């Protein structure tokens, strides 16, 4: 403390200033000057510093609030997106299951249609075979009948004379005419 008081005393004893002057002793004057400057700064700058700190505090708090609101909004959007994803996954599973069942149904329909076609073709084949058999039988009958008729006509022609032949034909024509009516 003695050096501080000595520095004040030395201000008065400076011969070139005549009572007022500068002390060039840096070690003695610096702490005093710093304490005076700091005292003035603290006394006058306390309000400004408090205002700056309060403004900074308010900005930080508003930034935190905005960040919280943005975080909440992002969480809400994330939940909505998750809900949409679950909904889409559910629909995709439904489509997949329905698709598989539709594929199985189409497969079964094609198999049934093919079986029906094969059965129809088999029936048509059997009908065609039956028709061809009947036609062949009818052709054989016709030939047999023609041959028998030719044989009978040959026998009749050789056995009958023309008058008997004429009466037989007339009687047969009469029988056929009676059948038509």
TrEMBL record:
It comes from the Eukaryota. One of its GO terms (cellular component) is chloroplast thylakoid membrane. The keyword Thylakoid applies. It is found in: Membrane; Plastid, Chloroplast thylakoid membrane. Keywords: ATP synthesis, CF(0), Chloroplast, Coiled coil, Hydrogen ion transport, Ion transport, Membrane, Plastid, Thylakoid, Transmembrane, Transmembrane helix, Transport. The chain crosses the membrane at residues 32-49. Residues 64-98 form a coiled coil. GO terms for molecular function: proton-transporting ATP synthase activity, rotational mechanism. It is a single-pass membrane protein. In plastids the F-type ATPase is also known as CF(1)CF(0). PANTHER family: ATP SYNTHASE SUBUNIT B, CHLOROPLASTIC. F(1)F(0) ATP synthase produces ATP from ADP in the presence of a proton or sodium gradient. F-type ATPases consist of two structural domains, F(1) containing the extramembraneous catalytic core and F(0) containing the membrane proton channel, linked together by a central stalk and a peripheral stalk. During catalysis, ATP synthesis in the catalytic domain of F(1) is coupled via a rotary mechanism of the central stalk subunits to proton translocation. Component of the F(0) channel, it forms part of the peripheral stalk, linking F(1) to F(0). Belongs to the ATPase B chain family. F-type ATPases have 2 components, F(1) - the catalytic core - and F(0) - the membrane proton channel. F(1) has five subunits: alpha(3), beta(3), gamma(1), delta(1), epsilon(1). F(0) has four main subunits: a(1), b(1), b'(1) and c(10-14). The alpha and beta chains form an alternating ring which encloses part of the gamma chain. F(1) is attached to F(0) by a central stalk formed by the gamma and epsilon chains, while a peripheral stalk is formed by the delta, b and b' chains. This is ATP synthase subunit b, chloroplastic. It comes from Anchomanes hookeri. The lineage of its organism: Eukaryota, Viridiplantae, Streptophyta, Embryophyta, Tracheophyta. The gene is atpF.
